[in-house]
Automatic annotation (TrEMBL):
<dbReference type="InterPro" id="IPR016186">
    <property type="entry name" value="C-type_lectin-like/link_sf"/>
</dbReference>
<dbReference type="InterPro" id="IPR001304">
    <property type="entry name" value="C-type_lectin-like"/>
</dbReference>
<feature type="domain" description="C-type lectin">
    <location>
        <begin position="31"/>
        <end position="145"/>
    </location>
</feature>
<dbReference type="InterPro" id="IPR016187">
    <property type="entry name" value="CTDL_fold"/>
</dbReference>
<dbReference type="InterPro" id="IPR050111">
    <property type="entry name" value="C-type_lectin/snaclec_domain"/>
</dbReference>
<protein>
    <recommendedName>
        <fullName>C-type lectin domain-containing protein</fullName>
    </recommendedName>
</protein>
<dbReference type="Pfam" id="PF00059">
    <property type="entry name" value="Lectin_C"/>
</dbReference>
Length: 150
């Protein structure tokens, strides 16, 4: 009986390295193993998310300070992929992971708006980009991402 072969950590690392060498589709910018582009219109958080999904991605989930710095250098005032619309005060990224309320990226030390500000956007504050909660109906650009690792 033949033994099943399972990819080991080195095979996975090699595959990941090859995937990261893939190019992004036209109109997308590459950073690490992800591709980014902005929505083409100023629109609500929900409409911005619909646009991203229609392009094969979703609103951006910020996973590191380096990614946030890249996004901040590339785009101006935009929606990020997080909301607390499903439960006030429980912020989740569009991939389902919880967004910490004590993350230093929050403007003012955390969300400020209460029940009418349920979507996350990036705002310029004191010479740096910070996260802020805003009404989901505010018209803004969205930053979409595609992960080359999927």
């Amino acid at each position: 009986m033949a033994e099943a072969i399972h990819p080991g950590p080195n095979m996975m690392t090699e595959r990941d390295a090859l995937l990261c060498k893939l190019e992004c589709p036209g109109g997308w910018k590459k950073f690490g193993c992800k591709c980014y582009k902005t929505s083409d219109m100023y629109q609500s958080w929900y409409k911005s998310r619909e646009f991203c999904v229609s392009q094969g991605g979703d609103l951006v989930v910020v996973n590191s300070k380096e990614e946030m710095d890249f996004i901040g250098r590339s785009y101006v005032y935009f929606w990020l992929g997080a909301t607390d619309a499903a439960g006030e005060g429980t912020w989740r990224w569009v991939d389902g992971t919880v967004l910490s309320l004590d993350n230093p990226s929050w403007s003012g030390g955390g969300p400020q708006g209460g029940g009418d500000k349920n979507c996350l956007w990036m705002a310029w504050e004191q010479s740096q980009y910070k996260w802020a909660d805003e009404s989901c109906e505010t018209r803004n650009l969205g930053v979409c991402e595609q992960n080359l690792m999927k």
